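Minutes, project check-in
Item: structure for the 504-residue chain
Input as provided by the requester:
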Amino acid sequence: NTTATTVNRSTGGFGIDNSVTLDGITLLQPRVGFNWNLGGERRMQVRGGFGLFQGAAANVWLSNPFSNTGAAVAQFNCASFTACATANAAFNPNPNAQPTLTGTPPAAAVDAVSPSLKQPSVWKSNLAFETELPPLPVVGTLVAGVEWLNTRTNSGIYYQHLNLGAATRLGSDGRDLFYRPEGYNPACFTVAANGNVTNVTANVVGGAQCATPTGQSRTRALSNVNFGNVIMAQGTKQGGGNAITLSLSRPQSQGWGWGLGYTRTGAKEVSPLTSSTSNSNWNGRNIFNPNEEVLQNSNYLIKDRVSANMTWSQAFVGTYNTTVGLFYEGRRGKPYSWTYINDLNGDQITGNDLMYVPSAQGSGEVLFKGGAAEEQRFWDVVNANPALSQARGGIVGRNTSYAPVVHNVDMRISQEVPGFIKGHKGSLSFDFLNFGNLLNKRWGRINEIDFPSRRSFVNYVGLDPATGKYIYSLNTSGTAADFATKQNERESQWAIQVTLRYEF
């Protein structure tokens, strides 16, 4: 429990077995599909299917308990041979001559797998209709189609932190808060000229005790001091999505063909599972409450997608074809969330708390450290961003905003060549990836919010002592972090791939 100045932290263990594995667990994957030829003058068919599918096995996540067993409590690090020798941290294959730890051992980190966890799998079903359209002059025969794809989670994974401790307060928006008393006192926060927020370290500021006692943490106030992170991989059956695709194509005839398609997708998940380690899987999710099992828009959602392709082929020498193909994709940008810059709820994770937006300007539901001028700057940003404006009086949903639309064109040029002996044939292909960027460096750019897909402009600086309402402080400009051109995987730059193939 906690009082105005003291906390009594949890003790004991957690009553879990972290030696659980998936040994002996099997997965039967039944599937059925059909194609129905409807006959008639023009070809028409209905096709579909239903079944259970497992993706890539969750091997790396299952290895986490073997890394953080609770027995390995320290790391020895050094940057040079001299430093390693001085620190007694040099590698030694002799198990009886290992470095010895001095001082107080650090708190143990423990990972665990829930006994009910299974390998991830999803139920998939699809239904499609395709038909030839009446021939048109010049264009020829077209094929139109519509397809619905549905997925439902059969067994998924998300992560919970078992050593947060009990909440010490309930926020004015209903979320759990985990700070020590000084984490709620606005006198214990300072705002620098650049808008950065820091915790006051002096013992007394304005009559308030702001220094965190030795051996304590300002965050996760009631957690067990003998443990660090205690993370469990839990199973969930929540999640899934729907996708509708409309298509129109001209099958290749007389050397050329083309296709058009549009896909509208909705997809929700409990956790995006963006990392290889349990702790970063837990803290890389944008949340209202840290351990919630709540469906929100998927990190991987591509809500709207238009695609087009065209292929032209002609044999200029003998039967050896010269082929040119173009592929275009236009899609809505990837989703992201609006969060606080710093740690709102005191779970010791910065930047992942979904933002609360008051119902109206001047409502008094939130206080602003900079007064009316800062509140005006806040509402300028809210009114300029639909996801913030639509969340008035509540919490902004996870992944409810989208990066700018992306346009991309790829091109392939392929030439067939004679083989060394009769019946053999070769081909030389040039793939121009992001061909538009080759023509103009401003084309083909992907502007997105980088991982972990969050955008921020508001700091938390305590609770109002009289009302318990949040106090906000904006960053220097009062504007949100801007989009950045995605370059870390060279997605916004052109590339050429050359392929030589020989067939016999």
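Outcome recorded: The mean pLDDT is 91.
No further action items on this chain.
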